[in-house]
Amino acid sequence: MANNEAWKAIFEKYNLFKYDFDKKPFKITATMIKEATKHFKKTNQREVRILCKQDSREDRPDVFKKLGLFILPIKNGVYKIIKGEGYLDIPYICSVEKRYLSKLDFCLDTAKVGNSEMQHLDYAYASSIIRDFMEDDSLVLTIRGRKYTPKFSFYVNKFFIEVESVQTEVDAGYEGRDKVVLIEAKNSKTKNIIIRQIFYPFKQWKTYTDKNIYTIFFEKQGKYYNLWQFKFDDENDYNSVKFVKFKKYEIICNEK
Predict the structure, then answer these.
(1) Quick check: pTM over 0.85?
(2) Rounded distance, CA 86 to CA 93, Å?
């Protein structure tokens, strides 16, 4: 991986191979990363955004894997390298699909063109399987895209973390009478994701509404639309995430 050498250079410059990550996380800035990697010629070995994008366990550089580390943004251009479990397994569940008759009384021709995460998520919503999964017919699409977080805090293991003005992205968010549903969508067979992808939006929207916040992971696999629900037992504990339920749908066009 291109980021292995870059992160090795970063660790060497700031003497991180001798740093005690058991004691506290290490704060690193975009400026520090750029300084340590300025001698590399390839863009993907110098670009901060690329080096800090570690969305699965497998995306981490070797030094992170060896030392049991992961990285979280805490402010625009500021990160913390943390020791502990930063990722969530997406459980494989052998389940019989629910053959679901679309609530639409016509077929969507345009939904068959392309193969993007957003397209599949939009089709799932249009067909009403999001409402079926959440058992709430009142859900409507209200959230999409990138936003910056307000200030919030939480614990990772025993470490206290404060976050402010970090960019998050919600693939789709739905509001109903008494709940808000936030969805992280992928378009491939995903084994794990960084918890941040569902935890930061969860914390963010908790500051804006008193309604219950629900976090969903969505993925299309072949002809099936799969949804996993997760929850946080403690809204201030990054690692308190728990699996709740799963359902596999096959959407049947209801053409009259």
Answers:
(1) yes
(2) 22
